[in-house]
Amino acid sequence: MKRLSGMDAAFLYIETPSQHMHVVGTLVLDPSTMPGGYSFDAFRELLRSRLHLLPPFRRRLVPVPLNLGHPYWIEDPDFDLDAHLVRVAAPSPGGMRELADIVGRIAGRPLDRSRPLWEMWMVEGLEHGYVAVVAKLHHSSIDGVSGADLMVNLFDLTPEAAPSEPDMEWQPEHPPSALRLAGAAAASQLRLPLGFASTALKTGQGLLRAQLQRRREPSSDAQPRSSAPNTPFNGAITPHRSVAYGRVSLDDVKVTKNATGTKVNDVVLAACTQSLRHWLIAHDGLPDVPLVAACPMAIPVEEGQERPTNAMTIITVPLPVQLADPVDQLRAINEASSRAKRGTQALGVDVLQGWAEYTAPTLVSTMIRLYSNFDLADRHGPLANLIVSNVPGPPMELYCAGARVVATYPMGPLMEGVGLNLTVLSNMGNVDFGVIACRELVADVWDLVTGFEDAVLQLRKATEGLHA
Does 369 map to a domain? Predict the structure, then answer.
């Protein structure tokens, strides 16, 4: 039995019928390398043999009576692998748009909390003889870094799958009694006052450091960050999702990064900015101030310390869509993101983690559902315009059940008022990215993909002759 951290549990509390708190990853595979040819059973056997390496796949939620504390994970005594695996066929011609339509429908449905919070869909009949594995996992059990670590246990470096350790069987647990859960929750509550005092002290010290850091910042001609403007993709969201996929060369991104002395994430954000600028112009919605991107950022964990499932904080970065020149956009983003990171480090990257421990389950869930049910996101300006995540991936060629991994497309959740999320993952010399949006707010997500791909090439062309 393992208690969820406050941050992990918060993803459960803020979930609503429209605001799904799961992440979705799409693996496109070439099964021509599979020993003996393609077989759905081979993927099932791979999962079965490696369950001891995949804790989030085995664990089921157990709530505390009356929601008096954060819930617990137990090893599911009723685990049924086949309840999590689904096999479907893509409609002709089986291209990326057909796959994206299937994934949009998968992403638009919540996970069943009575069993481990994941599903895996095998999509067959894609172009070139490819198949796709669509993995959906709840954010309470995984984040970008832990997700990448988890997926490593499903991959091999050669088409021949590495044998599983025969003595590493996992053991199911009996569900704890209500009395045991209540006792554990009471013990956690007794520790809260001391933790609260420590968190408050850290926050106060962090606020002081952040204020001193702002005073030390060099003067800048860049436009200061403003509040997020209204855009067509901001508003109350529905359960429906639209999805699109894209790919650019990591070399193109690095050429721009090296020529300008910026970072890969800055180039990604600049490409997003240019794509969003063109999209907003086409929809007569271009603001005269920057958009605000909410960017999840992994926080470091001390050596020897167990990494929490969601070890993350969030920084906000202005995306200067009001600027026409892509290089000007990139330089403004580099300066703004550097300032945001320095400010977060001064405040303390673990402050958000600390305060999440004190979320009240019933109160938070009730408030979020009321906010969603009454479409309150339509009645005030957005806190952020979109979510942009950047997850590092493996640089080498990988195989899953013997099938070569062709592409890996990640996607994160949407939030009320924020109907657009773009997540990128670098692997095998490419930057794969997935766009997910509320279908009613952003129907033409493929235009954003095309714009992103064009923007990366435009940035490389504009910066090739520059020197950092």
Answer: no
Beta-bridge mates of residue 73: 2, 61
* Angle at CA of residue 450, ends 446 and 454, nearest 5°: 170
Q: What is the pLDDT of residue 311?
A: 72
- Of 139, 174, 240, 283, the active-site residue reads 139
Among 120, 150, 181, the domain-final residue is 181
CB 335 within 8 A of CB 220: yes
For residues 195 and 317, membership in a common domain is answered with: yes
407 falls within a domain? no
* Together in a domain, 147 and 292: no
Strand locations in 213-349 (E): 241-249, 291-298, 312-319
Series of mean pLDDT values for 10-residue runs along the chain (468 residues): 91 96 96 94 94 93 91 96 97 97 97 96 97 96 76 88 70 92 84 76 77 70 66 97 97 96 96 98 96 88 68 90 97 94 72 80 92 94 95 86 95 96 92 97 94 97 80
- AA letter at 295: C
**Token couple for 444:** 């033409």
Query: What sign results for the dihedral spanned by CA atoms 369, 365, 118, 389?
Result: positive
> With 0-12 CB in 10 A as exposed, 13-18 as middle and 19+ as buried, what is 5?
middle
The pTM score is 0.92
Q: Are residues 162 and 204 in the same domain?
A: no
What is the pLDDT at residue 443?
A: 81
Percent helix, strand and coil across the chain, each to the nearest 5: 40, 20, 35
Inside any domain, residue 418? no
DSSP 381: -
At 232, give phi and psi (nearest 5°): -60, -25
Question: Could you give the CA distance from residue 290 to residue 227 in angstroms, rounded to a whole number?
Answer: 9
Domain of residue 10, residue span: 2-181
Please check whether residues 158 and 211 belong to one and the same domain.
Answer: no
Give me the number of domains the chain comprises.
2
Give the total residue count for the chain: 468
User: Which residue(s) pair with 404 in the sheet?
Assistant: 30, 399
Give residue 388's pLDDT. Answer: 97
Q: What does the pLDDT read at residue 468?
A: 57
CB 432 within 8 A of CB 62: no
Residue 84 a catalytic site member: no
Neighbours of 82 (CB within 10 A): 7
- Give strand ranges (E) for 139-274: 241-249
- 220: nearest Cα among 317, 333, 314, 323: 333
Helices and strands: H and E segment counts in the chain: 12, 15
